[in-house]
Amino acid sequence: MKAFTLKSLGAGLLLAGGMMATSSALAAGGHGCGEFTEADGTKVTLECSKAPIDLTNKGSLQRGAQTFMNYCVGCHSAQYVRHSRIAKDLEIPPELMEKYLMVTTDQIGDHITAEIDLDTQALWFGAAPPDLSLETRLRGDDWVYTYLLSFYEDPSRPWGSNNLVLANAAMPHVLHNMQKELGKEEYEARVGDLVNFMAWMAEPVRHERKVYGAFVLLFLLVLLIPVYLLNKEFWKDVK
Ligand code: HEC
């Protein structure tokens, strides 16, 4: 009986470990970041670059929010996110939020809507820009980061730009001027902040979830000691 209990405990722990490993592998986005063919015909598979995600870095999240509000909500909505939640979680004073970061509404309780009607955009671009609230969970942080860094000039496209990750993307290279002004390193950092913000937006409690998860596992491990001793005590006279 005792052996059985210990075995099932071991199996339970293994299962929990396995589930954690699988979920982090899934979150890391097991899929690549697209394929393309070089001019000489060789096929190249693009590896995703690692997005610098750190939801405890408020400065990075604030810079990301600023870029998102200034460059993305013209076309994209983020319909599950309220401006007031951004202000609260990212510690942005509501007055500053209202003054600088509320582009498409003047009510701080409103969700983020796109400035331009989606049907009109579908006509303009040939594809409607998807809602971005959950984008990093759909595609993975690294995919979104790599996508945003993979625009290149292509005169054959309507907006003069194309994308290595999403071939013939209908989205123009909206950060083009920023890229030119900032230089490679600073530009990549700014895009990193943007994706960090998008990761926060897709799951505001992501950091807390991990911390609580670690505590719960630690608690269970500590609980194991008295439970094991009790088990020994209860069964010691039973053969
Ligand atoms: C001028 C309008 C416009 C702006 C501004 C814009 N986008 Fe887009 N975006 C689009 C369109 C249109 C698509 C659809 C592309 C396609 O499917 O070919 C798209 C697609 C995307 C996708 C890929 C969605 C998917 O899963 O296929 C991401 C990610 C994205 N945009 C992020 C951003 C971010 C971040 C910004 C701000 C820096 C931004 N976009 C600004 C029009 C825009």
TrEMBL record:
It comes from the Bacteria. GO terms for molecular function: electron transfer activity; heme binding; metal ion binding. Residues 59-202 form the Cytochrome c domain. PROSITE patterns: CYTC. It is found in: Membrane. Binds 1 heme c group covalently per subunit. Pfam families: Cytochrom_C1 (PF02167). Heme c binds at residues 72, 75-76, 171. Its cofactor is heme c. The chain crosses the membrane at residues 211-230. GO terms for cellular component: membrane. Residues 1-27 form the signal peptide. Keywords: Heme, Iron, Membrane, Metal-binding, Signal, Transmembrane, Transmembrane helix. This is Cytochrome c1. It comes from Moraxella caprae. The lineage of its organism: Bacteria, Pseudomonadati, Pseudomonadota, Gammaproteobacteria, Moraxellales.
